[in-house]
Amino acid sequence: MAQDTAPTDRQDALPSIGAVSDQLGLEPHVLRYWESEFEELSPAKDSAGRRVYRAEDIEMLERIHHLLKVEKYTLEGARQVLAQEPSADAPGVSHDTVTALRRLRAFLMDLVEQIEDADRERGSIDAPGTSADRVDQPT
């Protein structure tokens, strides 16, 4: 069955670049730039040619944002990480599985961040090289 590429009512209801940029706290030009840098990101366009974002697009933007801003990857490093992840078009991997795994990964990364923040607030995280469990410390 051929897929119709004409915009549908559902597609018209998808969030625009402005709504998504507000949701993610990023400027629209950043989203457009990432679209040019990451082939995994390709939002649809409505009948007027405006970008509209599906849930998968927003998840990818969140993933890219996390890689670049939290994990401090370069653009090339983030591209390599994304290339190594399973995709919905990989044989034997369903789209639902990929989505669930991405959500789980995002949840776990957020959890690690929260734990590290809590440890920092308590002063439990030592500066590099000052760990109390170092073997070479005199007794």
- Report the strand count: 2
Our Rg estimate from Cα atoms comes to 20 Å
pLDDT under 50 segments (min length 5)? 1-12, 129-139
Order of helices and strands: HHHEEHHH
Shape: globular
Strand content: under 5%
Overall mean pLDDT: 79
Give the number of helices.
6
Query: Main sheet: which strands, in order across?
Result: 1-2
Assign the structural class, choosing from mainly alpha, mainly beta, alpha/beta, alpha+beta, or little secondary structure.
mainly alpha
Tell me about the largest β-sheet.
2 strands, antiparallel
Helix content: 40-55%
Q: Between the first and last Cα atoms, what is the distance in angstroms?
A: 75 Å
Give a quick precis of the structure.
By secondary structure, this protein is an all-alpha fold. The protein has six helices and two strands. The protein has a two-stranded antiparallel ribbon with strand order 1-2.
Features:
disordered C terminus; single chain; disordered N terminus; mainly alpha; globular; two-stranded antiparallel ribbon; 139 residues; 6 helices
Write the layout of secondary structure elements.
Elements: H1 9-12, H2 17-24, H3 28-37, E1 44-45, E2 51-52, H4 55-70, H5 75-84, H6 95-122
Antiparallel strand pairs: 1-2
